Amino acid sequence: MDHRGRIEAKQLTKRFNRKVEAVRGIDLDIAPGEIYGLIGPDGAGKTTTIRMLAGVMKPTAGVARVNGFDTSRDAERLRHDVGYMAQRFTLYGDLSVRENIEFYADIFGVRGAEREPQIARSLRFARLEQFQDRAADVLSGGMKKKLGLACALIHRPKVLFLDEPTNGVDPISRREFWDILSELHIRGVTIFVSTAYMDEAERCSRVGLMYQGKIISEGPPASLRKMVQGDLLAVQASDLPAAEAIIKRIDQVHEVQIYGDRLHVFVNDCPECRAQIEAALKAGGIDHIQIQAAIPRLEEAFISLVTHQG
Amino acid sequence: MLKSILNLAWKEILQLVRDRVLLLFLILIPGSLLFLIAESTGGGIRGIKFAVWDQERSAFSQELITAITNTSDFQLTDRAQSYAELQDLFNEGRVGAALIIPPTFSRDAFRPGSTASLGVIVDGSNEVVASSVIGALQGVVNDLTLAQWAGQGGARPTGIDLKIDVAFNPTLNIRWSTLTGQIAIITYLIVLVVAAVSFVRERELGTMEQLVVTPISRLELLFGKGLMAALIGLFNLVVLYLALHEIFQIPMHGSLALLLTLGMLFVVTEIGVGMLISLVTASQQQAILVVFLLAILEITFSGYLVPTENMPAFMQVFAAISPLQHFTTISRAIFLKGATFTMLLSHVIPLLLLATGTIGAAWVLFAKAAD
Questions:
Q1: Comparing C-alpha atoms, which of B116, B109, B121 is closest to residue B83?
Q2: What are the percentages of helix, strand and coil residues in chain A, rounded to 5?
């Protein structure tokens, strides 16, 4: 079997100081060419997972294989086919955009006739051609991420690991970044990306929900949405906290989330619930009531799954 | 307002207590400075080895020698029969002072109207020692003259004149011995700072994380960073040599190639020390503080300010393991005494051991840091 582009993990575990268990035995099997999104709240263990998969950190137990190479024992052989972009900016701020790319081209052994075209391609690909002489430190957050991506791609890896690549980036740059990722996806690069943004998870071919060091659910975004039990009702009302308290007391309701100016109410299959909620709210002296059926998004699905874990 | 000031102060204290290095620094520096400098300067000279070429062999000349050895400042090690013999003793570094008693010494001393002269040779490569030696000898001779006057009842010695000859640094030029020591200290500080921030800088800025996923091996990283520091060290040595020789006109009695070779051995040792600092500290700031602390200790022990021979035995142990002490001595010996490789073996061997030890330890630590 060709392992190029494949990511596998078996019972991958990381403990810090023998006590804190950041990653608690996760299994992964990611096919070549997939965009796999790892989502979860801060502290779930996403960064530790990515760092073990990219060979930055050794697992306490379990194995990870990328391109068929064990990430802790064959780390050296792994390097040439893997790109990694850490969460924070890890390039040299005092070097220019071009100097950073050149440095990574050189240490990845991109030499001779392929060096210049490859550097030019990376600059174009990351849309940084006009900024190539600018010091990396003075780039905007979005441009820094694109520079990081350009450096991580300079050796044309088969597998790319991205740790929250769009964290703290403005929405337009985020979209642009994902357009670049889509281009890579078309070229067949396996992309493993962690994110806290649910809309980004929707763009992945498969999503793993990570919570407290475990992957609690995994599947295409659509199938995860379906895992939410019951129906979702969006409730708008004059006094949301009071409305929440009232709705929570109704038997058929199993979960209430505050979502901006409305409440997301998960109810068991019950057509009469809508009327029941409306009646209860009116009895509680709440007006401006509006109730609509809603399709759960990944975000609600995630909160719901996490809540039921606890 | 007072409450927020106190809140802030409390937070600062908490942070300080958690920053072990800074805390250690704050406690250690004032204490060690006070203690070390006091200890190392207070003692004056002690047990300076000296040789005598007694051409008279009279009771009075013997009395003079006894008077000198009775002070704890001097220790008679050799009796020479010729000037050439004295010169050999100096060149081999076996004595720090020599006394030449002329054949007419006591006759001149007691004949009214004449003055006896006494030849003194001192090693001037460390002018602090040389001045102390001269001062101490002068003191012994003065006491002796007074005693003679009281004891001999009228036959008062008219005076003994010290004819001083300073070997190696004939004008007792303070600048010469300071500057030839300075070459070691400047190289030390520059190389150590560069090496000490090497890894911790990458770690602090996060760039290390990116480096470790590249095909660069840890050995390559260690050597790549070491090479940069070594080049800085070499450049520094050459520039300082040129400054000393061309601008300050200090004569170079030894071999420049030897100075640069041993200088690079010293640079490699300091790169090892610097990398160790870089691997155990958490930020560049901490690394610089450690360098600062180490520099104060090593400069104290280097013999740059105070000769190491005068320090208590336990401090001489620190001096023996201080690379700076070895290279300060080497630099002065090559410049001012024209020392050769074999003459410097007692400093070259410790430097070699220190270089291997520190680089080896840095390598082991770096390999371990991989997990």
A1: B121
A2: 35, 30, 35
Closest listed residue to residue A140, CA positions, set A107, A98, A184, A173: A173
- Residues A246, A276: contact at Cβ < 8 Å? no
Q: Is A91 at the interface with chain B, CB within 8 A?
A: yes
Contact (CB<8Å) B217/A107: no
- CA-to-CA dists, residue A75 to A64, A71, A185, A194, B221, angstroms: 11, 5, 24, 21, 16
**A109-114: which pairs have CB atoms within 8 A and are 24 or more residues apart?**
A109/A80, A109/A155, A109/B215, A110/A154, A110/A155
DSSP β-ladder status, A206-211 and A214-219: antiparallel
Give A 2-41 residues with CB within 8 A of chain B. Answer: none
Q: Say if pTM beats, i.e. exceeds, 0.80.
A: no
Tell me the nearest-neighbour CA distance from B289 into chain A, angstroms: 24
For residue B55, the 8-state DSSP code is S
Which DSSP letter does residue A136 get?
Answer: G
Per-residue pLDDT of chain B (371 residues; tens, 9 = 90+): 565 566 656 666 677 677 777 677 667 766 665 566 555 544 456 788 889 999 988 888 888 888 888 887 888 898 989 888 888 888 877 888 888 998 888 888 777 777 788 888 888 777 777 888 888 888 888 887 777 666 555 555 556 777 877 777 666 666 777 788 888 988 998 899 889 988 888 888 888 888 888 887 777 888 888 888 898 899 889 988 988 888 878 889 999 999 999 999 999 999 999 999 999 999 989 999 999 999 988 988 888 777 777 778 888 888 889 999 999 999 999 998 888 999 899 999 999 999 999 999 998 988 776 55
∠ CA A44-A139-A194, nearest 5°, is 20
Q: Which residues in chain B are contacts of A55 at CB distance < 8 A?
A: 212-213
Residue with tokens 């010290």: B162
Size of interface A-B (CB pairs under 8 A): 44
Cα separations in angstroms, B321 against A207, B25, B298, B316, B358: 59, 21, 9, 9, 12
Q: Are B124 and B141 in contact (CB under 8 A)?
A: no
